[in-house]
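Sync notes, pocket subgroup
Present: LS, DG
LS reminded everyone that the earlier model was apo-only. Rerun requested with glutamine included. Inputs:
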Amino acid sequence: MLTKLSIKEAHQGLKNKDFSSEELTNAYILNIEEKNKDINAFVFKTFDLARETAKQVDKKIKDNQEISLLEGLPMSIKDCFCVKDVESTASSNILKGYIPSYDATTVKKVRNLGGVILGKVNTDEFTMGASTETSAFGVTKNPHDLSRVSGGSSGGSAASVASEMAMYSLATDTGGSIRQPASFCGVAGLKVTYGRVSRFGVMSMASSLDTIGPIAKNVEDLAIVLQAIAGHDKYDATTPQIKVPNYFEELKKDIKGLKIGIPKEYLNDKLNPELKKIIEKTAQKLKKMGCEIVDVSLPHTEYAIAVYYIIAPSEISSNMARYDGIRFGYSVEKEDLEIKDLLDIYNKTRAKGFGPEVKRRIMIGTYALSAGYYDAYYKKAQKVRTLIKKDFDDVFEKVDALLTPATPGPAFKIGEKTADPLEMYLEDIFTAPINLAGVPALSLPAGKIDGMPVGVQIIGKHFDEETILKIGSKLENK
Ligand code: GLN
């Protein structure tokens, strides 16, 4: 089965001329045609573009030219990335009809390497959510059980990889959006260090927390995609000019002697007891491979959700200001003849274009930033964020990486958490602190609960993706 191959296997197959990129691409397209109507991962399909790229790659192979590792391999892109000449909406009605005139830096990199773009995949509206239920395109169902969510916000990315509708996917993580859906769908996901990968051309949610990373079938594939997208970009001032390691080579190195901490605050009463056992089992495996497991503490963990849900909405309220019915996508101006003035366009476009979760966050954020409340909420949250970050700085003086759950439990049922926003926000308890600290973290399939996959999370030091990838790769081969 062509769609089962890993990146390296598929690359080798193309080079050996065992099959062509067109054949591989068609195999994925066939899966999309069969499965997407049930799963609803793809929201825009670009099959013509995909086949055209595949043909070009096949020509290169026929001419015995060198091809890159990602060349000719079919992939999907979360709908919040700008893809030139392809509708890009962040799964929001307010961006309906918006066709970017340029590629996001990461998309451009993949395109320049000969990546085959199959289409855009579903996300919670502007990536706000943990289930894709806030998407204007409706929920993406979990390939392992269609009555359950695929997670979010990158549910389309995770479901597309899990159901072999894409080999890997480009996604974003602001508070858990790569790691939680990866865990729910039984695939691997990497949230990078803040600044490791350029965010240029991706619709911002909360700018001090937003990161871009891959979701893939396994850790080696994550490393290959990371290699392709990491590094400084003159269009994103948060990407430092530091060397990008050779992740692929790093994976081969031993993990013997590494110190891995388990923070006690993450084994709390919110955690599914079965998942706690999976964490313990994972720790045992690491011990057998020569790692030292130590108990550690991140004392400010309990404040992370409160802090995140002040800082993220504050930044959201500012980032959403640009959707005004004039510059991008949908405008009420074209359909409402009663429009009085410019303000009326703004108000009516935003009232109709944004869904309830986005509006909720704009209101919370505007409130938290307003005169009189700024010190009590936003400034206080920033101070506690510093303490949360310091917890990680302190613990990484003692250990090389941390092992925690990625989610409180396995995928929940569709509709189970939509009535109470706080219930949905609590999905992020084990992931949001990592975004507040800016460090990298990997979500890796580690077991099953009631037949549903669940992942564990491995958290690393700033700009030390190689260590967590190395640990993840050893674990998945055990
Ligand atoms: N679930 C979190 C939220 O709703 C995280 C979203 C994300 O990482 N984009 O804010």
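DG: The mean pLDDT is 97.
LS: Residues 269 and 408 are 9 Å apart (CA to CA).
Action: DG to write up.
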